């Protein structure tokens, strides 16, 4: 046993250190019965999307289908493509089996696993690179608790990708040493599925990393392309393997309103990003972001397109000093890569490129943090090579800027009326921490002092980034339970409504719930918790077609992806049958009658309700509608793009404002019957998506984007049996691509096996 501990002493120290730091962050939440809900997005999106994921999985198992479509997300959407693109958290899959754990408990456990995983994978990377064990445990702690990682405690799905970054680059290092690519293929495929949003940035960063390492190993660029070809091939095989997810995602992303938008090109609109970049390596930004403190605005910029710009480059004060040492070293490649990072940071176009040619964002710096930590590792074993002059000037300039700039920037951008904000003491603590780090490096102290100081510093920063932050401990578990059960448990409201009207089982309807009165303004996605179809949401992964509804009547609120349908005509158009309110004044219009009491709330029925489908006998163009600008038109007139008016007018005939006689929904399908005296053109109250196949009386019909982004199709005279089947656009092609990737991967494995066997 003693031999085991001696042999694995360093990794045991690493694991113990991670557990101690994370315990200091998380145990206070447990001991004080405080919910581990650290941010606005966690309470408004992540926790509810997790419940939606559980519901989707349960339904998939029951029906033997894949979770392609969600009826309960805002107006219904392509669940498969949209959630894989952005809010997909691979760790959530494994926790859906734990039915009795709350989301707060699940995120706590996941955070421990993720931070531990990030640290251990970084340790493994250092092992592959032959760094000393001292350097490895130092770098692992810095990476596991960098400002980027700590800030991502509030954004769990970003942290899920961050965890595997060292493993990905370790696979590239294995290629340099052993020329093996099979594991790299699998890791690439896994990360592509894990989060396309981050995978795109990783793909760009891979080019930087490979060129840098090739030159570092060979001290020349000749032969670079030849060396890179097998790895490029492996990358594309990995991408092919994930085609069943990637291709539907790509087709869905194309319509997202945030793609291709950028408020800045060469210069930022505010001076604050430049300030944050200047002090980024010495500022533990997680101490200031998500704090609702006066100084938060100094370190955070919100662009005109509502993207938060916060520089999260800190990984300890010693790390900051050593980055500067690396830049001023004799290694040209270090200067080049650090200047490249700086260029990408200071020019908005650079961060736009790293953000998928959209609004500039600094989220890509997760990979820069990894890279800069790696650059500092050689100094951990050889403190004596530190340039004393550079060290002194780094400290002097850094300390002066840290003391002065926050006050200057704060007064320029948000003048103080009552003296220094109290959180300026945090700036003072940062400078004190810088001073201690400077003295440790100046005195060439042993590694144990470097490690001990780094651990203590990170522990303090980690605590004040979590439980020590008033903003991240707003809610008790009792409060969260109360708001998440204000309408009782999942499906209980649905069951109650069945008792009011047995026909509800054969109808499609939405339920109006005022957020302030019923949900305590906690979230607009709580309908996902109760599993009913609602009329509001805060969701970046909405169905993009529905934004066109804003041309008829506004459905977006304070953000392009924050929705709340209040227009009385749209309430009727989207098949709203019930309203749950605490006061009649909260009803969306007067044609609601009280039909029951549910959990002390009044339940009203909409006498204007229509079952899922409307059939029109007249149409106008969108340009004509804009002259009228009366949303009631949507209830009896088809509104179409100007270039479609002639084509669709040929389908008009009968009108029907009663809806389906009956309709049945399953996860990815619907079936309903309706009878018409003449042919007609119908719309159903879900967003248009090319993934829908509509069959009328056994014949597939064309679908159209009409009525402000909803789904339309023609019907026949007489009886119409309508079937709708949803498969994400591009999914079938994606499966073919994945199978191609699988065949190629098997071929690679066989070739590598033969090569090894011949040796």
Automatic annotation (TrEMBL):
Entry's transmembrane regions: 12-31, 103-123, 135-151, 157-176, 183-212, 232-254, 274-293, 305-324, 336-358, 364-381, 393-412, 424-442, 449-467, 733-753
Record keywords, A-Z: Membrane, Transmembrane, Transmembrane helix
InterPro entries the UniProt entry points to: Uncharacterised_YfhO (IPR018580)
Name this protein carries in UniProt: Membrane protein YfhO
Organism: Anaerorhabdus furcosa
């Amino acid at each position: 046993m003693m031999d085991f501990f001696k042999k694995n002493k360093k990794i045991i120290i690493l694991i113990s250190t991670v557990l101690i730091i994370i315990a200091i962050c998380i145990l206070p939440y447990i001991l004080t019965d405080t919910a581990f809900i650290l941010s606005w997005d966690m309470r408004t999106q992540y926790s509810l999307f997790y419940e939606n994921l559980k519901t989707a999985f349960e339904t998939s198992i029951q029906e033997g289908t894949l979770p392609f479509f969600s009826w309960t997300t805002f107006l219904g959407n392509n669940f498969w493509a949209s959630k894989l693109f952005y809010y997909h958290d691979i760790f959530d899959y494994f926790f859906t089996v734990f039915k009795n754990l709350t989301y707060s408990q699940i995120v706590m456990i996941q955070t421990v696993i993720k931070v531990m995983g990030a640290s251990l994978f970084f340790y493994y990377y250092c092992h592959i690179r032959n760094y000393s064990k001292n350097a490895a445990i130092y770098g692992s702690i810095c990476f596991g608790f960098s400002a980027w990682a700590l800030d991502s405690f509030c954004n769990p799905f970003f942290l899920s990708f961050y965890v595997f970054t060292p493993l990905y680059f370790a696979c590239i290092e294995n290629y340099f040493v052993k020329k093996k690519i099979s594991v790299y293929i699998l890791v690439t495929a896994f990360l592509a599925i894990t989060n396309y949003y981050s995978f795109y940035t990783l793909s760009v960063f891979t080019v930087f990393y490979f060129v840098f390492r090739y030159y570092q190993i060979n001290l020349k660029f000749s032969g670079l392309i030849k060396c890179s070809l097998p790895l490029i091939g492996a990358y594309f095989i990995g991408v092919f393997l994930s085609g069943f997810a990637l291709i539907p995602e790509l087709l869905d992303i194309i319509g997202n309103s945030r793609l291709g938008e950028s408020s800045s090109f060469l210069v930022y609109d505010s001076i604050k990003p430049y300030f944050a970049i200047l002090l980024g390596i010495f500022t533990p930004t997680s101490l200031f972001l998500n704090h609702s403190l006066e100084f938060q605005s100094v370190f955070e910029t919100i662009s005109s397109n509502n993207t938060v710009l916060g520089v999260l480059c800190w990984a300890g004060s010693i790390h900051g000093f050593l980055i500067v040492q690396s830049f001023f070293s004799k290694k040209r490649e270090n200067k080049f890569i650090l200047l490249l990072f700086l260029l990408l940071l200071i020019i908005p176009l650079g961060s736009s490129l790293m953000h998928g040619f959209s609004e500039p964002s600094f989220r890509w710096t997760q990979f820069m943090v990894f890279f800069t930590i790696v650059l500092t590792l050689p100094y951990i074993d050889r403190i004596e090579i530190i340039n004393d002059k550079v060290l002194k000037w780094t400290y002097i300039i850094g300390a002066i800027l840290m003391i002065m700039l926050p006050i200057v920037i704060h007064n320029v951008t948000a003048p103080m009326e009552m003296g220094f904000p109290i959180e300026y003491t945090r700036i003072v603590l940062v400078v004190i921490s810088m001073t201690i780090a400077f003295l440790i490096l100046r005195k060439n102290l042993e590694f144990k002092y470097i490690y001990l100081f780094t651990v203590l510093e990170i522990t303090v920063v980690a605590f004040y980034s979590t439980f020590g932050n008033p903003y991240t401990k707003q809610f008790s578990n009792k409060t969260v339970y109360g708001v998440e059960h204000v309408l009782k448990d999942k499906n209980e409201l649905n069951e109650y409504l069945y008792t009011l009207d047995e026909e509800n089982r054969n109808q499609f309807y939405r339920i109006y719930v005022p957020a302030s009165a019923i949900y305590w303004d906690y979230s607009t996605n709580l309908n996902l918790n109760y599993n009913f179809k609602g009329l509001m949401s805060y969701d970046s992964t909405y169905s993009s077609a529905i934004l066109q509804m804003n041309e008829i009547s506004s459905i977006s609120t304070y953000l392009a992806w924050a929705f709340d349908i209040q227009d009385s005509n749209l309430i009727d158009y989207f098949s709203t049958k019930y309203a749950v309110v605490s006061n009649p004044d909260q009803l969306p219009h007067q044609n609601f009658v009280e039909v029951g009491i549910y959990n002390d709330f009044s339940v009203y029925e909409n006498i204007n309700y229509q079952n899922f489908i409307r059939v029109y006998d007249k149409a106008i163009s969108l340009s004509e509608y804009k002259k009228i600008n009366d949303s009631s038109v949507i209830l009896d007139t088809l509104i179409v793009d100007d270039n479609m008016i002639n084509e669709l007018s040929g389908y008009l005939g009968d009108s029907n404002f009663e809806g389906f006689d009956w309709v049945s929904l399953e996860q990815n399908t619907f079936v309903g019957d309706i009878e018409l005296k003449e042919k007609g053109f119908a719309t159903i109250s879900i967003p248009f998506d090319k993934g829908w196949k509509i069959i009328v009386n056994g014949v597939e019909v064309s679908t159209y984007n009409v009525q402000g982004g909803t789904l339309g199709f023609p019907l026949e005279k007489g009886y119409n049996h309508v079937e709708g089947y949803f498969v994400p656009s591009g999914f079938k092609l994606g499966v073919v691509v994945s199978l191609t990737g699988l065949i190629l991967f098997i071929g690679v494995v066989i070739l590598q096996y033969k090569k090894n066997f011949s040796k």
